[in-house]
Amino acid sequence: MRWATRQGVHIDRAACAWLIRREVDHDAEFAFVADPADVPADATPFDMPGVDLSHHGPDCTFETLLHRYDLTDPVLWRMAAMVHEADIDDSRYDAPEAPGFDLALRALSMVESDDRILELTGPLFDGVYEFFRRQLMLGREPA
Amino acid sequence: MALTTGPGEWVMLTYRMPRDPSTPRSSVWRRLRRLGVAQLGDGLVALPADARTREQLEWIAEAVREADGTAGVWLARPATLAQERELATAMAAARAAEYQALRAEAEAAVSLGDVERARAVRRLRAELGRIRRRDFFPPAERDAAVAAVELLGTSTTGEPHRADPDVVAT
């Protein structure tokens, strides 16, 4: 399936692409567009104003995806807190790592293409998932 | 923003929302305040345009529409440099007041015991970060506020606050 989002990806779009590939569509292909009108006809748009898979109320798109696809995994919700605070920064969640991820994604977007950012951040989000999974199981910082 | 080369690009949000319910209205208002917008009129706010400010206003426009309001996001230039300076000056003055209040808090916290002071440093650094994030035309008061918070972070009273059992002498 094809998916489309705005070009110049930041943490919400990078994390959503990771989540879509992991939980919704293992063979997902992503297109990056400058204007919502440029979304290919066969693509599902996300994280763009005016589409369903986007910000709603206080939620960022990562949270919207968790709701839409009935993903209740607490590890994914812990990641949602990180993505939300790095993206929106409204203190809705306690996610002390968020400012670092915000800077890291903004920094990457200065030197890498959108496709490359998804390649680079995929393993990072895999690791973050594993970190929060162990943290939730142990009830403390893992290793 | 280089004011010498002519007025820069601004992103503007026009919005109207029903008076009731009031919750979405106050949520939108809080989000606009956090972004540090210039209020140009009733239902008209502006920020210097960049990828982040434009995206933030687009999300707020969506929130307005979801609450049965109407909203639009526009890119515009002030017609004259003087008009842009007036806007920048008003925004800088709003941030200056925030920096001054923060500096006063930091200076007042110097006399606290070590534990409370460390807590105050963390809180004031976070607040400083939030103000800097919406500071598009840094006023002179910024440096004094940064210095006051850093001084608070490095100073010690020389008298460890012993009332707290968690404090361990090192």
At a glance:
The complex is a heterodimer of chains A (about 140) and B (about 170). Chain A has about 140 residues and is mainly α. Helices cover about 50% and strands about 10% of the residues of chain A.
Task: For this entry, give a set of tags.
heterodimer; A: 143 residues; mainly alpha; 3-stranded parallel beta sheet; globular; B: alpha+beta; 5 helices; 4 strands; 14% strand
Overall number of strands of chain A: 3
pLDDT averaged over residues of chain B = 89
Q: How much strand of chain B?
A: 5-15%
The number of distinct β-strands of chain B equals 4
Residue share in helix of chain A? 40-55%
Number of helical stretches of at least 4 residues of chain B: 5
Distance between the termini of chain B: 48 Å
- In the predicted model, the low-confidence regions of chain B spanning at least 5 consecutive residues are 161-165
Number of helices of chain A: 5
- Largest interface (CB < 8 Å): A-B, 11 and 13 residues
What global shape of chain A is seen?
globular
Percent range for helical residues of chain B? 40-55%
Structural class of chain B: alpha+beta
**What fraction of the residues of chain A are assigned to beta strands by DSSP?**
5-15%
Strand order of the largest sheet of chain A: 2-1-3
Topology:
The complex is a heterodimer of chains A (143) and B (170).
Chain A: E1 2-6, H1 11-24, E2 29-33, E3 43-45, H2 61-68, H3 74-87, H4 98-111, H5 114-138
Parallel strand pairs in A: 1-2, 1-3
Chain B: E1 10-16, H1 22-35, E2 38-41, E3 44-48, H2 51-66, E4 70-76, H3 81-109, H4 114-133, H5 141-154
Antiparallel strand pairs in B: 1-3, 1-4, 2-3
Helix pairs in contact in B: 1-2, 3-4, 3-5, 4-5
Description:
The complex is a heterodimer of chains A (about 140) and B (about 170). Helices cover about 50% and strands about 10% of the residues of chain A. By secondary structure, chain A is mainly α. In chain A, strands 2-1-3 form a 3-stranded parallel β-sheet, with no helix packed on it. In chain A, helix 3 crosses helix 5 (about 115-140). The longest helix of chain A has 25 residues, at about 115-140. By secondary structure, chain B is of the alpha+beta class. Chain B has 5 helices and 4 strands; from the N terminus they run E-H-E-E-H-E-H-H-H. In chain B, strands 2-3-1-4 form a 4-stranded antiparallel β-sheet. In chain B, helix 3 packs antiparallel against helix 4 (about 115-135), helix 3 runs parallel beside helix 5 (about 140-155) and helix 4 (about 115-135) packs antiparallel against helix 5 (about 140-155). The N and C termini of chain B lie far apart (about 50 Å). Mean pLDDT of chain B is about 90; it is low at about 160-165. Classes of the chains: A mainly alpha (about 140), B alpha+beta (about 170). The interface between A and B is medium-sized, with 11 and 13 residues.
